[in-house]
């Protein structure tokens, strides 16, 4: 370990003075005054001033030692105006020997700053935002030393922590009560609604940077050693990631790790950390300070490459803080407040399920897509999710009040009372709608032209089961069995699998439950099985492909299903079947388990139906053939559409580029429905589109009679179907579905039809 020779080994006097100022419990003004006095005397300057950003984004002189006190709360400037405004705008320190000669210098006579030449100002940063500016000035013309700049940056950071901390506790400490900062002003973001619902709560940042408890180091040498150790552990963990799996990594993933490693070894980053620790901060506080500096700079970057870099640095900073805290560098237990709205850049399905769902009210992502599994799980659990809220993470702090509108995709942060009021009103209206759906609960879903529809639930966990009765679903059309595997830390035992399947069948009573065998691979990764790195996991070794190559796991699961179905009605289907032959092989595996149970004299299911999921275009063209080997067909429209349009459902840039109501897609769906109906093979749709009223009425017009959907879809879809004449809509859309059609979507046509016919969509 090499350290600079001139590093100080005791906390500077300034830090001791700041510590004292922090210990006080005075009012706002007194505390700020203490700060400036401490700075002025220990830095041996003539002036120390604090400018804070007020609502309306004006900087206001809030405390000073050395300028005229009468100017406090009077002198104001816009960011960008004068030297102080310039520092606020650029979020960078400004160190001038002769400030009045600087072109940006703007003279404020009321402050009496005429005699002061040298000028050092640093931004007060928190969460990438500028809360204000801290300034010191002296009469003598001189440039402040690097150490002095560091000291002032450190003081600014302590100040920022106090401001934010005080805001968070609602000014309880009375430290800054009465001062509202622009940093806590309301913000409105427009994202995309990926799971419906209106919800209010308080923000919780996913893997939030742990705010350092101690900002100031007791002993700088000890702290320097801690930092070096932390960096060593961090680098070792990143090295292990890169070299451990390097041979087998796909190019894309490898690049990510390589870039990550580059950051971990970035000399400038480490140098800034060392400097911050040498100025008296704890290692954690140093990480925060450097993170804030990066955020302030990179946040402004429009370039996605630079912004992605910011996320890498954030990630690395989090990792280093965890290393410093002695934590293992793996995912930890995640706690939530009672009304949490989770904010994250992106969230995998397993990550989402790491959180206590009872406390999780809503989710806001900077990225995400409608068919990502996080979105699907949210819809299943009735958790509103807004995605693609670009830049929102830079504006939010854990604890901020939030309104999430999962209908329009709008998120309000720290909303004004008037916004809250109208939101409440809408929540009430929604409540009324929910009551209207409730009233339809026991009504059969029969269209106006007499088509009997079956509206079923997509489910996967125990928590989903009570929803069957809550919304009056006609069964479970898709039971995603892999969810149980994804939420456990260990492979679920045969007994556990059997128990869950039994509970699902019991909860459904006489209604059917369709179990889909494990759909692993793609983004569904089990924590206890090493993923096989693949270039294109969605079209890689997943679902039935794994099951047929390594039948052990599926046979085990089929055994559990056969056991759970004893004396009951058992329906099982296989995901991602691409050829008829795969269906034949899968069915043979199932039959072996039934034969085994029979040979052992175990009770067998009263009725068995084995179906196929139709989620690949190739199988669509062999649908009649596969009907010979399947008791039913369930169209997995999420995957079918992703493969049909060659658009990754998990890639936000392309996932909703193509409309499933594209005439070509509808023609394929109609082809499937027609062939199944001709073969007397029951057919259903279980992708997300089944749960949206407009799409659902279209599916009914195409000939589908069973739709399986997230719980939130049942009420609205039933309300729409009750008003639909399916044959009439079929006639309406038929001319637009010819191969000559050049339309990209029939959405407007269906929408218009529904409006004319008072179908609520
Ligand atoms: C589908 O692909 O449409 C489907 C229902 O399965 P999953 O979303 O689980 O892939
Ligand atoms: Mg699928």
Largest sheet: 8 strands, mixed
Proportion of residues in extended strands: 15-25%
Query: Count of DSSP helices?
Result: 26
Shape descriptor reads elongated
Helix/strand class: alpha/beta
CATH topology heading of the largest domain = TIM Barrel
Radius of gyration: 31 Å
Q: Give the averaged pLDDT, no decimals.
A: 85
List the bound ligands: phosphoenolpyruvate, magnesium ion
> Strand order of the main beta sheet, please?
7-14-13-9-10-11-12-8
CATH superfamily of the largest domain: Phosphoenolpyruvate-binding domains
CATH class of the largest domain: Alpha Beta
Q: Estimate percent helicity.
A: 40-55%
CATH architecture call of the largest domain: Alpha-Beta Barrel
Model description:
With 761 residues, the protein is α/β, with parallel strands linked by helices. The chain folds into four domains: 13-174, 2-Layer Sandwich (Beta-Lactamase), CATH 3.30.450; 187-206 and 334-430, 3-Layer(bba) Sandwich (Glucose Oxidase, domain 1); 212-324, PtsI, HPr-binding domain (Enzyme I, Chain A, domain 2, Orthogonal Bundle), CATH 1.10.274.10; 441-756, Alpha-Beta Barrel (TIM Barrel), CATH 3.20.20. The protein has 26 helices and 22 strands. It has an eight-stranded mixed sheet with strand order 7-14-13-9-10-11-12-8. It has an eight-stranded parallel β-barrel with strand order 15-16-17-18-19-20-21-22, surrounded by six helices. Helix 5 (220-245) packs across helix 9 (304-324). The protein is elongated and about 95 Å long. Mean pLDDT is 85; it is low at 1-11, 168-183 and 245-254. It binds phosphoenolpyruvate (PEP) and magnesium ion. Residues 376, 478, 480, 519, 615, 636-639, 686-687 line the site of phosphoenolpyruvate.
């Amino acid at each position: 370990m090499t350290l600079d020779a001139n590093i100080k080994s005791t906390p500077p006097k300034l830090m001791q003075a700041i510590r004292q100022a922090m210990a006080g419990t005075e009012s706002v003004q007194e505390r700020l005054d203490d700060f400036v006095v401490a700075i002025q005397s220990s830095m041996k300057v003539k002036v120390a001033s604090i400018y804070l950003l007020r609502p309306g984004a004006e900087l206001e002189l809030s405390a000073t030692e050395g300028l005229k006190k009468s100017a406090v709360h009077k002198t104001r400037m816009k960011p960008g105006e004068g030297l102080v405004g310039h520092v606020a705008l650029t979020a960078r320190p400004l160190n001038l020997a002769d400030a009045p000669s600087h072109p940006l210098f703007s003279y404020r006579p009321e402050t009496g700053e005429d005699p002061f030449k040298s000028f050092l100002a640093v931004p007060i940063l928190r969460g990438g935002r500028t809360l204000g500016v801290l300034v010191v000035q002296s009469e003598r013309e001189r440039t402040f030393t690097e150490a002095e700049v560091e000291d002032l940056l450190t003081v600014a950071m302590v100040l920022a922590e106090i401001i934010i901390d005080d805001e968070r506790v609602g000014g309880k400490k009375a430290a800054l009560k009465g001062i509202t900062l622009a940093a806590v002003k309301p913000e409105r973001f427009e994202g995309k609604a990926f799971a419906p619902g209106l919800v209010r709560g308080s923000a919780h940042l996913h893997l939030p940077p742990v705010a350092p408890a101690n900002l100031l180091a007791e002993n700088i040498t000890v702290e320097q050693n801690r930092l070096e150790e932390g960096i060593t552990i961090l680098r070792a963990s990143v090295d292990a990631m890169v070299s451990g799996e390097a041979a087998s990594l796909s190019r894309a993933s490898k690049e990510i790790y390589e870039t990550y490693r580059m950051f971990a070894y970035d000399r400038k980053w480490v140098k800034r950390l060392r400097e911050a620790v040498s100025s008296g901060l704890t290692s954690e506080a140093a990480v925060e300070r450097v993170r804030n500096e990066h955020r302030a700079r990179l946040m402004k970057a429009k370039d996605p490459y630079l912004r992605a870099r910011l996320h890498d640095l954030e990630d690395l900073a989090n990792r280093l803080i965890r290393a410093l805290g002695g934590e293992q560098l793996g995912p930890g237990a995640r706690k939530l407040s009672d009304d949490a709205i989770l904010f994250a850049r992106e969230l995998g399905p397993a990550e989402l399920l790491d959180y206590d769902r009872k406390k999780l009210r809503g989710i806001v992502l900077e990225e995400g897509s409608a068919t990502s599994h996080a979105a699907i799980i949210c819809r299943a659990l009735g958790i509103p999710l807004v995605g693609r809220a670009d830049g929102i993470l830079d504006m939010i702090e854990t604890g901020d009040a939030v309104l999430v509108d999962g209908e329009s995709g709008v998120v309000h942060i720290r909303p004004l009372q008037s916004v809250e009021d109208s939101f409440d009103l809408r929540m009430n209206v929604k409540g009324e709608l929910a009551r209207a759906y409730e009233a339809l609960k026991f009504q059969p879903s029969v269209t106006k032209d007499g088509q009997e529809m079956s509206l079923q639930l997509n489910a996967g966990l125990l928590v989903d089961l009570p929803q069957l009765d809550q919304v009056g679903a006609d069964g479970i059309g898709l039971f995603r069995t892999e969810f149980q595997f994804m939420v456990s830390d260990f492979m679920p035992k045969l007994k556990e699998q059997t128990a869950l399947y039994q509970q699902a069948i019991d909860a459904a009573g006489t209604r059917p439950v369709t179990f889909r065998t494990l759909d692993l691979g793609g983004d569904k990764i089990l924590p206890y099985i090493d993923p096989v790195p693949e270039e294109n996991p969605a079209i890689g070794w997943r679902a039935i492909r794994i099951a047929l190559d390594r039948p052990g796991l599926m046979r085990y699961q089929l055994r559990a299903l056969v056991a759970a179905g004893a004396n009951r009605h058992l329906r099982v289907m296989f995901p991602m079947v691409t050829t008829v032959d795969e269906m034949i092989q899968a069915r043979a595996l199932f039959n072996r388990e039934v034969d085994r149970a029979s040979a052992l004299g175990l009770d067998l299911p009263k009725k068995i139906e084995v179906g196929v999921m139709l989620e690949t275009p190739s199988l669509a063209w062999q649908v009649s053939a596969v009907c010979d080997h399947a008791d039913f067909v369930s169209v997995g429209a999420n995957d079918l559409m992703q493969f049909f349009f060659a658009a990754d459902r998990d890639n936000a840039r392309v996932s909703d580029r193509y409309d499933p109501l594209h005439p070509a897609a509808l023609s394929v769906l109609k082809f499937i429905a027609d062939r199944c109906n001709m073969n007397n093979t029951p057919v259903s749709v279980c992708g997300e589109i089944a749960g949206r009223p407009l799409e659902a009425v279209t599916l009914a017009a195409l000939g589908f009679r069973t739709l399986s959907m997230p719980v939130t879809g049942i009420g609205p879809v039933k309300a729409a179907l009750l008003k639909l004449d399916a044959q009439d809509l079929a006639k309406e859309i038929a001319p637009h579905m010819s191969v000559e059609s050049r339309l990209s979507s029939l959405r407007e046509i269906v929408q218009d039809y529904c409006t004319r016919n008072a179908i609520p969509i």
